[in-house]
């Protein structure tokens, strides 16, 4: 066996080992929607002081019948229950342990938290379901308890923690990042560089579509946070006392977030298109161009140029960090997402070509 073959086999072993499953235990431990134990998957690397905690996405539900359909009729048991979770989970994208697939984070301690609370990772209640059933919305507590559990597994020795998430998980990052940073500070006697990485979580606050209640994000979000007894970003919710749902829009909460955030966003986000009810419109280039301009302007006007990063491409898609391909296949000004992340983290030498804020000026589809 040649040296190169040995290294290849070693990396295959790392992938095959995957991440181990851990359930949150205790009388008051948070649960999934159906009351089954919440938990996480973890792959430790004691030689690394860098950690990534990834919050999975997967939409949400905001009233009993909708949540019932989510658990039964739509056949998505994994987003409401842990009963089918396997003992091992393979890592991909940000959580891949293969260097060629994940150059920036392949050696980090990897944590994957499955999404089973249907509440953008901000709920804190047990609500009434259909009939006599109850539904647990414990997303906020799941994040907190996983972080506490990880402190005893090496997180207390971390130099840097990236709290990442896609879609609903990205919204969860924006709401929880400062709270997680404060929690770690209260348990660790050293400075930990806590940062957020959000993927496809930039929801635009748009006017309601006439005759379509579900197309009014303000109304839907207001109903949702009440149903979940949501724990929103503290400073933002104090600022929007009468309209707390406004904090679920990234452009509003961003100005209150203390920790550095990197935004990965498709300018023609397909969930935003759905939210705006565009499936009933003429799906033409004029609409896509308008959406791209609005998305780009919203991001540009919200990020803090002293601490935040952005990679916003003119493509119609939704999410990307959970798989390897977008890290290297999409480029803006000849820079990949991986390179922009490296510049934002300070891993690459800062030069004129090292850009941590890249946004497509082209507003048509690539």
Provide the succession of SSEs.
HEEEHEEEEHEHEHHHEHHEHEEHE
| Computed Rg | 20 Å
Structural class based on helices, strands and sheet pairing:
alpha/beta
CATH topology name, in short, is Rossmann fold
Strand percent estimate? 15-25%
Tell me the domain tally: 1
Spans of at least 5 consecutive residues whose pLDDT stays below 50 are 1-14
Helicity range: 25-40%
Mean pLDDT: 89
Number of helical regions: 11
If classified by CATH, what would the architecture be? 3-Layer(aba) Sandwich
Shape annotation:
globular
Strand tally is 14
3D structure, described in words:
With 366 residues, the chain is of the alpha/beta class. The chain has a single domain, classed as Rossmann fold. It has eleven helices and 14 strands. The protein has helices at residues 3-17, 64-73, 139-151, 168-187, 217-228, 234-239, 250-253, 270-275, 285-300, 325-329, 337-345; strands spanning 19-23, 39-43, 50-55, 88-89, 109-113, 125-128, 134-137, 160-166, 193-199, 261-269, 309-317, 331-332, 335-336, 357-359. The strands form three sheets. It has a ten-stranded mixed β-sheet with strand order 4-1-2-5-3-8-9-10-11-14, sandwiched between helices. A two-stranded antiparallel sheet has the order 6-7. Strands 12-13 form a two-stranded antiparallel ribbon. A hairpin with a 2-residue loop joins strand 12 (331-332) and strand 13 (335-336). It is globular. The N and C termini lie far apart (44 Å). The model is unreliable at 1-14 (pLDDT under 50).
């Amino acid at each position: 066996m040649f040296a190169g073959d040995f290294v290849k086999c070693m990396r295959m072993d790392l992938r095959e080992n995957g991440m181990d499953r851990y359930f949150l235990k205790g009388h008051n431990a948070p649960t999934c929607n159906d009351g089954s134990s919440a938990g996480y998957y973890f792959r430790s690397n004691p030689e690394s002081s860098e950690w990534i905690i990834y919050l999975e996405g997967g939409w949400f539900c905001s009233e009993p019948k909708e949540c019932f359909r989510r658990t039964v009729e739509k056949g998505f048991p994994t987003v409401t229950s842990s009963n089918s979770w396997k003992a091992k989970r393979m890592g991909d994208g940000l959580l891949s342990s293969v260097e060629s697939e994940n150059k920036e984070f392949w050696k980090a301690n990897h944590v994957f938290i499955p999404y089973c609370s249907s509440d953008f990772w901000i709920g804190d209640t047990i609500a009434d379901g259909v009939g006599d059933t109850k539904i647990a919305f414990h997303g906020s507590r799941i994040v907190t308890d996983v972080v506490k559990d990880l402190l005893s597994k090496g997180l207390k020795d971390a130099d840097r923690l990236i709290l990442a998430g896609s879609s609903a998980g990205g919204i969860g990052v924006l709401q929880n990042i400062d709270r997680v940073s404060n929690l770690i500070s209260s348990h660790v006697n050293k400075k930990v560089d806590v940062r957020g990485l959000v993927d496809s979580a930039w929801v635009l606050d748009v006017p309601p579509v006439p005759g379509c209640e579900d197309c009014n994000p303000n109304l839907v979000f207001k109903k949702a946070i009440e149903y979940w007894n949501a724990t929103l970003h503290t400073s933002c919710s104090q600022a929007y006392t009468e309209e707390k749902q406004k904090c679920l829009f990234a452009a509003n909460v961003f100005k209150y977030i203390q920790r550095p955030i990197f935004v990965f966003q498709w300018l023609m986000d397909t969930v935003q298109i759905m939210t705006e009810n565009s499936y009933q419109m003429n799906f033409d280039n004029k609409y896509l161009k308008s959406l791209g301009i609005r998305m780009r302007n919203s991001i540009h006007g919200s990020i803090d140029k002293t601490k935040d990063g952005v990679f916003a491409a003119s493509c119609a898609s939704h999410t990307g960090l959970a798989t390897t391909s977008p890290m290297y296949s999409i480029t803006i000004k000849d820079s990949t997402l991986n390179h922009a992340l490296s510049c934002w983290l300070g891993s690459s030498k800062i030069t004129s070509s090292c850009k941590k804020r890249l946004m497509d000026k082209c507003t048509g589809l690539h």
